[in-house]
Design brief:
Blueprint (H helix, E strand, L loop, with lengths): L5 H14 L3 E2 L24 H5 L8 E9 L1 E2 L2 E2 L13 E9 L5 H13 L11 E6 L9 H9 L7 E4 L1 H4 E3 L4 E12 L20 E14 L5 E14 H8 L12 H11 L9 H21 L8 H19 L7 H12 L5 H35 L3 E2 L1 H11 L3 H10 L3 E2 L1 H18 L10 H4 L5 E2 L6 E12 L2 E3 L1 E2 L4 E6 L1 E2 L13 E5 L5 E12 L2 E8 L3 E2 L3 E6 L1 H25 L5 E6 L4 E6 L6 H16 L4 E8 H6 L14 E7 L3 E4 L14 E10 L2 E8 H21 L7 H34 L3 H4 L1 E3 L2 E7 L5 H15 L3 E7 L5 E7 L9 H10 L4 E4 L3 E6 L5 H6 L1 H9 L1
Parallel strand pairs: 1-2, 6-7, 12-13, 14-19, 33-34
Antiparallel strand pairs: 2-5, 3-4, 5-11, 6-9, 8-9, 9-10, 10-11, 15-16, 15-18, 15-24, 17-23, 18-22, 20-21, 20-24, 21-22, 25-26, 26-31, 27-28, 28-29, 30-31, 32-33, 34-35, 35-37, 36-37
Length: about 900
């Protein structure tokens, strides 16, 4: 067995399957295209999911890939284990070979055994290998065929082990393709055993490592749970590159392979920490930094940005976990951004997109590092406030853990140091509930196999690029209420599939055409078409309401609404110009993150870190309209090999789109070149004009611009003119433009409002101070402590704090509690304790007790604390309870 680098293993795997007639397919994005059921791409088969479901057809029946994957959220969540085990990772590469109804078990098993054992390839000794098969369970028979095929390859019977559904039966979801699987395991030897005992296969997971899983898709599970044989059984396999590298490099841990050692070394340099024997606590931190740097670099490169929800939330957790372990090693300055370049240097040959994206990724990472530093500082203050209540509840601790990234061990130690109870059981319960919510939020709707009505139809010929009308289109299918029917009647809402059409179907952000289906005499309308979709890749379904009876085999003419199409294509070409202008003005880090093209507007989401200044928006708008005025030809080039489109035409690939081996390139002079299947104007002058409506934030690191073109822009200018006329009437000033005159008037009114508000606040404050001027005389004494509680509904929190200070001064020594009913039934509470009493009674403990009575919580310093509540009806009762609360605390 010859030692090989990770890069050599990846290339050797792909080359082997190319020799077996497989198409090498580039890894898909870590953000699954159009698949809400997945948080991240987590297996090699994800990009072929629609092919297995019958929703898409490819021009090849065998494929091989090295797929980048992330498992750090939802069902597959390895995050907490990473760094502390030999084989858990957030980011990893899955090598795979796939058959779409071509070969099946015999060839799949033969290929796998040849690649793994042949001296020409991996050359792994056969006496170190074991295989597993499905033993039969839940009404599904034993996989006798796989057993006999492994025997035929020369695998001894005592090295073929049988397991049930949990380990050796795979399914895509509750319904759809599924089948038994076979796994190949490698014996790493007794030195890999965690116990040091010589245990047999199946009893030592550390020693016997699964390196390859072969899934045999042979059934289709229906809604009733019944299994039916697939007409074309398929193959889906997955071999972990990191595990295979450990085997071929004779390493017990994946982290000892060349896929990780350069990154661990870089992490050590950045944190001034030396990697020791692999068992030191500092070693785990270096492994975590290396792993999380890989995941963060690839996720951000693929368009994910740190945020507080969904994919961005998981990315934020990964990044902050890596940053925190750097801090544990003493590095409190930003350092993870440098790890981005280390990942690029190691991975750019296999993933060349990292060369272009590394600078953008590093900026995102550094921004997150700086924000996390601020959050940690704030979190530490929040922790101190929480502990003022005398204990640290599990819910509160988990809130600090999730919101501020405070480490569990840090909070446990802090509680111990202050001699208060830490509710670890409550913390774990809160964590389990959050994980359950995260899983539930990403169940989505399980993707179903395509309806046989659509799956068995030929691809629709699209003629709409050059014409709005297609004649003599044959009705191939009529779908009513989800079922195929032979005929339908006037008034029925149906989906109609034709052999050819001029209607564009939803894709690439552009919505489908509307229009009509005419009878074959070309005179009468058969159906009104409200849209067009692709339920199966390549098959167009026209959503329609029938005016006349329709049956299979009828011939119709397709007529697209010309005004709808023209408005849409103006906006689509405008989107391409907008994309290019954004990159020109803001920088080449701008990357599309989504778009919507409709007849009345266009929307474009893109990666960018800050808001766009008005001057920049004007520059972008000017650039676009210069291209429009130049009336540049919009050139579309069909059937371009994707490598040629990317490398020679330098075409931009759009976010979330799937591309085949041949693509369509849309080129607008030297200004814009993109891969696009949408409809476009013949020249930029047809757009008329592009008017930007504004920009805003979509999520962290993602901005959105909306715009209109053509008649939509004209209407926008008319509205602007009407506003200008109104401004002239309201704020006439011959020395200023209407807009500046209106701004001047509004600013003056704003200043007047601010002045009135200040005066009102002063009056309220004087009124409240007057009402409590003799409040000090109303204080009661509780075990030698003066206690004053008052209700002050007219004051906001700032005024309440000022009043608390004044009353404490009047008391000289004592406790002051103020409560105020706020808007929407909410309550504000503020407690002040004079400095001489804080050893006896703390403000945080008082406010924590009385806040419970109004349905809230809070905390703060020993001398000043605040709380909020939800039940204003209980405010008087809460204030009356203050003396008793103080009595108990003093006691």
């Amino acid at each position: 067995m010859q030692s090989r680098s990770g890069s050599e293993i990846r290339e050797m795997f792909l080359k082997f399957f190319e020799t077996k007639g497989h198409r090498r397919v580039h890894s898909s994005s870590l953000v699954p295209a159009h698949d809400p059921t997945l948080l991240f791409t987590n297996a090699g088969m994800n990009q072929f999911k629609d092919v297995f479901l019958g929703l898409e057809q490819r021009d090849y029946s065998r494929a091989t890939t090295s797929q980048k994957c992330v498992r750090a959220g939802g069902k597959h969540n390895d995050l907490e284990n990473v760094g502390f085990t030999r084989r858990h990772h957030t980011f990893f590469e899955m090598l795979g070979n796939f058959s779409f109804g071509d070969y099946f078990k015999k060839d799949a098993i033969a290929y796998a055994w040849e690649l793994v054992t042949s001296p020409e390839w991996f050359g792994i000794p056969k006496d170190r290998l074991y295989v597993t098969i499905f033993k039969g369970e839940n009404g599904v028979p034993r996989d006798e065929e796989a057993y006999n095929l492994w025997l035929a390859q020369g695998v001894p019977a005592d090295r073929i082990h049988e397991y049930g559904s949990k380990d050796n039966f795979w399914q895509m979801g509750d319904t759809g393709p599924c089948g038994p699987c076979s796994e190949i395991f490698y014996d790493m030897g007794i030195e890999a055993s965690e116990t040091g005992e010589d245990k047999p296969f199946g009893q030592d997971e550390a020693r016997y490592v699964e390196i390859w899983n072969l899934v045999f898709m042979q059934f289709d599970r229906n809604q009733q749970g019944e299994l039916n044989l697939l007409p074309k059984p398929s193959i889906d396999t997955g071999m972990g590159l990191e595990r295979t590298a450990a085997v071929l490099q004779r390493k017990i841990s994946n982290f000892e392979t060349d896929l990780f050692t350069p990154l661990i070394q870089k992490a050590g340099e950045l944190t001034s920490t030396k990697y020791q024997d692999g068992n030191a606590p500092t070693d785990a931190s270096l492994r975590i930094i290396a792993d999380h740097a890989r995941a963060a670099t690839f996720l951000i490169s693929d368009g994910v940005n740190p945020s507080n929800e969904g994919r961005g939330y998981v990315l934020r957790k990964i990044l902050r976990r890596g940053i925190r372990h750097g801090r544990l090693l003493g590095q409190e300055n930003p350092f993870m951004r440098e790890m981005v370049y280390a990942v690029r240097d190691e991975m750019q040959n296999a993933y060349p997109e990292l060369k272009e994206s590394a600078d953008r990724v590093a900026k995102v990472v550094e921004a997150e590092e700086r924000q996390f530093a601020r959050v940690l500082e704030l979190g530490s203050h929040q922790l101190q406030a929480a502990m003022q209540e005398g204990s640290l509840s599990g819910d509160k601790a988990f809130h600090l853990y999730e919101t501020y990234g405070l480490p569990l061990d840090f909070m446990v130690d802090a509680a111990r140091d202050q001699g208060i109870h830490f509710d670890l059981e409550g913390f774990e319960k809160a964590r389990a509930e959050e994980q359950a919510r995260a899983r539930a939020s990403w169940k989505g709707g399980t993707k179903q196999s395509a309806s046989p009505v659509f799956r068995e139809l030929p691809k629709t010929i699209f003629e709409g690029y050059r014409q709005l009308t297609s004649t003599g289109a044959e009705v191939l299918a009529i779908i009513k209420d989800g079922q195929g029917v032979q005929a339908a009647n006037p008034g029925d809402a149906v989906e109609i599939v034709l052999d050819h059409t001029s209607f564009y179907a939803d894709s690439g952000g552009q919505i489908g055409d509307t229009g009509w289906l005419y009878s074959d005499d070309h005179n009468s309308v058969v159906a009104d078409v409200s849209g067009c979709t692709k339920p199966v890749q390549g098959v167009f379904a026209h959503k329609a309401i029938l005016r006349q009876p329709l049956k299979l085999g009828d011939k119709v003419d397709t007529v697209v609404d010309g005004n709808f199409r023209n408005a849409t294509r103006r906006n689509h070409t405008g989107t391409h110009l907008l994309h290019a202008a954004l990159r020109e003005v803001l920088g080449t880090h701008v990357k599309q993150a989504g778009s919507l093209v409709e007849p009345n507007r266009l929307r474009f989401d893109f990666s960018h870190f800050t808001g766009i200044a008005d001057e920049e928006l004007q520059d972008i708008e000017n650039l676009i309209n210069n291209e429009v005025l130049n009336n540049i030809r919009v050139e579309t080039i069909e059937d371009v090999p994707i490598d040629v489109a990317i490398n020679e035409y330098h075409a931009m690939a759009l976010f979330g789109e799937k591309y085949g081996e041949k693509v369509r390139v849309v080129k607008i002079g030297d200004f814009s070149t993109e891969l696009c299947g949408g409809t476009h104007t013949g020249a930029t002058g047809e757009i008329g004009v592009v008017k930007l409506l504004g920009e805003g934030s979509v999520s962290s690191g993602v901005r959105r611009v909306e715009a209109v073109t053509g008649l939509g822009a004209l209407n926008e200018f008319r509205r602007g003119f009407e506003v200008a006329q109104l401004a002239s009437q309201l704020a006439s000033n011959p020395e200023l433009s209407p807009a500046d005159a209106l701004k001047h008037k509004l600013n003056a009114q704003d200043e007047e409002l601010k002045k009135l508000r200040r005066e009102l606040e002063q009056i309220r404050m004087k009124s409240a101070a007057s009402a409590v001027s003799n409040a000090a005389d109303q204080a009661i004494e509780v075990k030698g402590v003066k206690v004053l509680s008052q209700r002050v509904d007219s004051l906001d929190r700032g005024q309440m704090r000022t009043l608390v200070d004044n009353l404490r001064n009047k008391l000289g020594s004592g406790v002051v509690v103020l409560g105020s009913a706020q808007e929407e039934g909410k309550v504000a509470l503020i407690v002040g304790v004079t400095k001489d009493l804080t050893a006896k009674v703390q403000a945080g403990k008082i406010v924590g007790q009385i806040a419970k009575l109004v349905g809230g919580s809070g905390g703060g310093r020993p001398d000043m604390a605040e709380a909020g509540g939800k039940d204003a009806a209980q405010l008087d009762a809460a204030l009356k309870s203050v003396p008793q609360v103080v009595d108990e605390l003093v006691s």
